[in-house]
Structure formats: structure tokens, C-alpha cells
Amino acid sequence: MGGRRRPWVIHDSMNNRLVTFPDGTTWQLAQKLTEKGWEGTPPERREEEPDDWQPSEAHAVYECVQTCGPCPSTVAIMKIRIEVPFVLPPSDDPKERAKEASGMRLNGATELEIENLEKLTAAGCSVTPTLLAVKIDVQDESILRYPAWDQREDDGDFSEGGTKWWMPGGYIVYILMGKLPAQSLDTFWKRDMFTKHDRDEVRNAFKKAYLYVDQWNYQLQLTIGQGGYEARLFPLRQ
User: CA-CA 20 to 30 A from 76: which of 68, 174, 184, 193?
Assistant: First the structure.
């Protein structure tokens, strides 16, 4: 459902964007918290793997604020998952980029995240975000207003400006979630910031959450690294 990491392509292109969901509420993106990209299946291999191929994707997580709806100024979390070209660097011709579009076939990780959030929200799970709304749309040229392919010495990416990253016919998914009270673990491994006692408390809290979601036959995975932490849920398939 995911491959190698890809260049970050969203950058500041969606700052302050207004997103209206099917329930009629409108939310404005605020601070971006994280951004990642993942490499999917090469286009030439899609015929070989008709049931298993995955589109390439970039996703970013934002804080957002309700600007229109029953609870103005409410703060929530919005994850945006957007299909991006596999071929690098992307073609200047949008018609060529459109040939890579999945036909609105979502990356498996995106489908799984929505499914997980729906089930855990319905079950009243208190250690995972409440799913508030989902919007799945088709990209147009306004999706990425100021895209750039960043130059980063540590991963060998290139630098590209312009509008080369939007994919005609590709998908963009907005996942709106309640904001859970939490503390950043970016400094987890810094002993002057997190003592051994602090780290043990984090581990114990994770164990408690793990056992809690296990009752719904889910597996909770927490990865803590130099760039912070990431928690992911996986259903335990029978």
C-alpha cells in the first residue's frame, strides 16, 4: 500500500485553503503539521498487477478551523491525500500526466485509513480521532496553486517550480477528524527533554491504547524516530 518515500510536493500550495464537505461545513486550513510522499506502482507494471497496483501519493496533515457551520472557530485536524505522478520529473504536458491517473482508484492505505476511522468512530473508540467527514474530489489546476519540488541534500531530490504536480483526473481526498489532546514526541530521544521516566510513561500509555483497540481486532503501531512519531492502525485480517 506504500512504497519508497517520495519528494514532498504540497509545501505551501494549500495554505489557508477553504474546504467544504458534503455535510455543508467549511473549514480553513491553518498550520501544517506533517507532510510525506510515497511511491506507488510504475505505470508499466499496472497491467502485470491489475488487482494490486497502487497510485503514487503525497499527503499532509493540517490543523483547520471551521468557518461555516454549527460550531464556528472549532479546531480540528484535516489530512489531505493527493495522487501525484510516478514518473520523475513530471511531464510539462498535463495530458501526459493525465495518462498516469488512476481513474479515481484510491491508494490502498487511503481506503484503509477511512475504513478504520469509520469503524472506530462508530465503536466510540476514545484513543483514535473521531471521523467528522470525508470528501473525495477530482483534481483540477487550482488544486496546487504554488507547488514546488523541494531540493533536499539528504535525499537527493530536485527543485521544480510551476504547476507540474497536479494530475488531471487524479484524486484528492480530504479526511476531517476531531483533534485529540496530545503532546508532541519530536524530542522523545533527547534526554534533556524526555527523561527515562517520561519515555516509560509514553510506552505505558501506548500499551494501554494498544490493548484498548485490540478489543476491536485492530493493531496499533507506533513509530518513534528522529523526525517525531507516527501512529497507524491496521485491522487484523482473518
Answer: 193
Can you give the pTM of this predicted structure?
0.78
What's the rounded Cα separation, in Å, for the pair 196 and 191? 8
Residue 233: name the closest of 216, 31, 225, 18 by CA: 216
Beta 171-178 vs 131-138: how paired, if at all? Answer: antiparallel
Place of cell 503501531: 221
Assigned C-alpha cell, 121: 468512530
* Pick from 14-18, 21-25, 90-94: least confident: 90-94
How far is the C-alpha of 183 from the C-alpha of 172, rounded, in Å? 29
| Cis preceding linkage at 89, omega within 30 | yes
Judge whether residue 14 has pLDDT over 50: yes
- Cis peptide preceding 181, ω within 30 of 0: no
Which amino acid, 142?
S
Identify the bridge partners of residue 66 per DSSP, sorted by sequence position: 27
Among the listed residues 80, 66, 71, 79, the one whose alpha carbon sits nearest the alpha carbon of residue 20: 66
Q: Give the integer Cα–Cα distance in Å for 49 and 57.
A: 18
Query: For residue 219, what are the β-bridge partners?
Result: 234
The pLDDT score that the predictor gives to residue 5 is 54
Question: In whole numbers, what is the pLDDT of the chain averaged over residues?
Answer: 77
Give every CB contact of residue 224 below 8 A, 6+ residues apart in sequence. Answer: 185, 188, 189
**Amino acid present at 24:** G
Peptide linkage before 55 cis (omega within 30 of 0): no
> Three-state SS for 70?
coil
Cβ–Cβ under 8 Å, residues 169 and 103: yes
Q: Per-residue pLDDT tens for 192-202?
A: 788 888 888 88
